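Hi there,

I know you've been waiting on this one. I reran it after we fixed the sequence typo, so this is the corrected version. Both the input and the resulting structure follow.
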Amino acid sequence: MPWIAERRRLDRADLLQLVDATIARIGRHICARPRRVLLLPPDITRLHSGSGWLCEAFYERFRQEGATVRVIPTLGQHEPHTAEQNRTMFGRVALQDIGVHDWRGGSVPVGNLPAEEVAAATSGKADWDLPIWLNRELIEQPWDVVLNIGHVVPHEVLGFANHNKNYFIGIGGKATICASHMAAALCGIENNLGTLVTPIRHLFNEAETRFLGHLPDLYVQLVMARDAEGRLVHTGYYAGDDLETYLHAARQSAEENITLFERPVERIICWMEGDSFFSTWVANKAVYRTRMAIADGGELLILAPGLRRFGEQPEVDRLIRRFGYRGTPATLDAWQHDAELHEWGHAAAHLIHGSSEGRFTIRYAPGHLTRDEIESVGYEYADLGDCLRRYGVDKLREGFHEVGGESFFFVATPSIGLWATRDKLEARRAAAVNGRPTRGEA
């Protein structure tokens, strides 16, 4: 069970008190006088969650107690932060104390889940080993405390974000990220979203038990929701060292962060913040989180003022430009026959996740990419300036609107939730699409 479970509206003062309470529990459960502390917060795509300034609070509190503190943002394969982004995210944390996760060259092997276990977990959809490679600094340095901080929200691979996602994706190596993402794509993004324990989450839980049991670690899990005025506020704080800490937070997120519609929505407009979403790799959360709500033949319009590329790395950007978002059959065929795409399996998974499978139109209004670039990957294009003038996004709150004779549902931050029709979620539960009921709870 969680050491601390607070489910109520929490302001900054409340959260700082909970930081102190968490450190007191660390002293009783993990280490009385920590001297070497590793903090693992999310990257800047979770800027809105407050995880960055919470990390700053833990950093300062541990340092006041005489500890040496290291911070490694759990980038996964995202682009490393600039110095300015680190200042924006982590405030007074000294830049020299912030590490950079190198997902290709900075990881070491810690174990392997064999193909037969992967096949059993995925109902035969994936039949390869899941090698576990993790950040060298985590594994090879001695730590008195490893503290994972993060925001629990619906997620396209693991059902809900955070918990041991921080390890196996956030500071995971290339082999782990590629193998797990492709397996998740074959399980089906709409089967994963909003499920407490997906097949890949189940495998990560097994890997944590087998390979990371020696770590002196714990989790701080945040939950957020919009208040009556439409502001994003903290509504949950869970701290502890077990799976139940995650499950408590995920159940609350399922209640507060999933919006259900009685019938499909013809048109959804999403706003992706310009200071956080620079590639379709991350901005496509607008596609992932709304796809279960959009009507056949409908449209998703994504307003992305920061969008300047497709992939987070040059290799992946090139693959997205080459193969485009063409749907599962075309992507699987390319993945099976093209050596480069097969090597970068997470890119193939992303192409699957980012396609509407021809069911609805995905239209991007980017800040920097051209019409030709957007259309070359299979999306439709809109002019961002025209859209901003037409819809007055700065005045919109989440919900249904009619502007100039156009009706649509507006989502300001798609990355914080999931939007779906009730029948899709109920049909998924009835079909038990994720195998054993203990893994398929939603």
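Quick highlight: Residues 432-442 have pLDDT under 50 and may be disordered.

Best,
R. S.
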